[in-house]
């Protein structure tokens, strides 16, 4: 029956779209936040081009770490970008 198949497909779609966050005691560390940012393709490319590039947690805002990707050149800081990393989910968001 096509109506039953459509219903089953809708249920399967909804179940696949659910996301469960284990926010009990799970917490993303600063080191994990840095690793997640370093693994981004644009950051990997930047670090290949800029051997003195740094990736560091440079603050916190609410439930997120603020991670700065930058280099110090000629006495000043040249920022490539800022990223926020959610402390609970580990989701990385580009700031600029």
DSSP strand tally: 4
Give the overall average pLDDT.
Answer: 88
- The SSE string, one letter per element, is HHHEEEE
The number of helical elements comes to: 3
Strand order of the largest sheet: 1-2-3-4
Shape: elongated
Report the radius of gyration as a whole number of Å: 19 Å
Ends distance: 51 Å
Structural class: alpha+beta
Low-confidence segments, given as residue ranges, are none
Q: Roughly how much helix do the residues carry, as a percent range?
A: 25-40%
Major sheet attributes: 4 strands, antiparallel
Provide the β-strand percentage band.
25-35%
What would your notes on this structure say?
- This protein is an alpha+beta fold.
- Helices cover 35% and strands 33% of the residues.
- It is built from 3 helices and 4 strands; from the N terminus they run H-H-H-E-E-E-E.
- A 4-stranded antiparallel β-sheet has the order 1-2-3-4, with helices on one face.
- It is elongated.
- The mean pLDDT is 88.
Blueprint of the fold:
Blueprint: H1 2-17, H2 30-38, H3 41-49, E1 54-61, E2 64-73, E3 76-86, E4 92-94
Antiparallel strand pairs: 1-2, 2-3, 3-4
Give the structure's gist in a few sentences.
By secondary structure, this protein is of the alpha+beta class. 35% of the residues lie in helices and 33% in strands.
Offer a few descriptive terms.
96 residues; 4-stranded antiparallel sheet; alpha+beta
């Amino acid at each position: 029956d096509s109506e039953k198949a459509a219903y089953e497909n809708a249920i399967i779609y909804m179940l696949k779209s659910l996301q469960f966050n284990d926010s009990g005691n799970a917490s993303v560390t600063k080191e994990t936040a840095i690793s997640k940012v370093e693994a981004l393709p644009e950051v990997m490319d930047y670090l290949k081009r800029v051997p003195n590039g740094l990736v560091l947690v440079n603050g916190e805002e609410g439930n997120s770490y603020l991670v700065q990707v930058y280099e110090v050149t000629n006495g000043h800081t040249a920022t490539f970008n800022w990223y926020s990393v959610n402390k609970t989910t580990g989701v990385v968001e580009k700031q600029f």
